[in-house]
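Input record (one chain):
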Amino acid sequence: MSFLGIDLGTSAVKLLLMAEDGKVLQTISQEYPVYYPQAGWAEQEPEDWWKATSEGIRKILATTAAAKDPVQSIGLSGQMHGLVLLDRESRILRPALLWCDQRTQAECDFITDQLGSKLSEYTANKALTGFTAPKVLWVKRNQPEIYRQIEHVLLPKDYIRWRLTGEYATDVSDASGTLFFDVARRQWSMEMVDFLGLPATVLPSCYESYEIIGYITGQAAATTGLNKGLPVVGGGGDQASGAVGTGVVKAGTVSVALGTSGVVFACQNTYSVDDANRLHSFCHANGKWHVMGVMLSAASCLKWWVEEVCQLDASGFTALLNEASAIPAGSQGLIYLPYLLGERTPYSDPNARGTFTGLTMTHGRAHMTKAILEGVAFGLRDSLEIIREQHIPIQEVRVSGGGARSILWRQILANVFDLPVCVVNSVEGPAFGAAILAAVGAGVFADVEKACESMIHTTERTDPVATDVDCYHAIYPIYHQLYGRLQETFEQLGKL
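The corresponding structure, as predicted from the sequence alone:
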């Protein structure tokens, strides 16, 4: 038997077929466009998602692997925070507003001003432009004729669930990123629903990520080739599903996703929240909770440096990293702030800018490359330090994403964190986690932790080097204070 994980990303849907022992049998990706109607706006057509997903399912079912190991259940993962609106006839009312859409700052300010500390009490989080509730408020204020027709509010992956099963449902991990959700109690926050003036009936039913909450309909079976009646589990938001896919399901292990953005993710056995809401506090996909820090530019900083500044092709990454490996820790006093797209954790500041500080005539290209790698590591450490302040145990870091392929960058992370940095056998991310959740829902494993213990193990480990650890401990406080000293300057630049 096999299990199908479907991850609805921002630029493509990824489908993964997993065997009962965790072996990845087949993966397929189908792309779709993002639309940018205005500066700072980002939208997609839900029908593009469905077309790509249904085509991907047909393709993966046509493979030899699927023929030998028929699909037994399905798990869903996807980009969080997006807003899909349907009317009474389940027709799409407008293009979906995505997690990266920045149009809702005024709505976030209004929510924060009106609710104050009650917002954290209701939702465990602060209002950010990426979240779903401010998007609903934006539609209410700017498109009232659409707002009046809202019958269903769905998250992106849950639109696919509806097309597959006919169920209006979501899971607790994805719901946690809406600002409609009471994370502590793992249920919708009626206070937030009332505050925004929405009927509670527009929100989908909410389940744990490993629970079966629907079955493939006859219509979906005819469209996709899946067998009618196949179970579909709750699934999870992409970060929670990705953490399941790397085995970060117990306290003590932290996940660092070193992709375009950077994410530091720690599992909690019990609920707690950072008093200043510097971290996201969400429900995890395994029945527990997690905290998460997000930096908006991580591996994208290196990509910008290689392609835009140094004007090199793909081979340039290797050349620049080789140069940087000869530079001592600390880049001879050069510090890089990785705020190319503003920042989220620990500074929710769209005006934050990237900077090099400490340049002298002795610095060259290799120093600047090394400083970028170090600056991203320091930015991730900002989130790690907040996790430490919450007394969440950390014994090991598991790193994933494109940046994790660099041995040099992994060593820098180990030295900056003063923790072992590991790579695991799973490299497929959220789609793999969704397949694991599907296997748990089918009863193959008793729970998510046992499934991860069976399927995921460490393949490489990088330990910190004491002399470099001491160097970075001395530099980190200087890095950390730079934002505060430059914040007013960033704000002034943002007004130009």
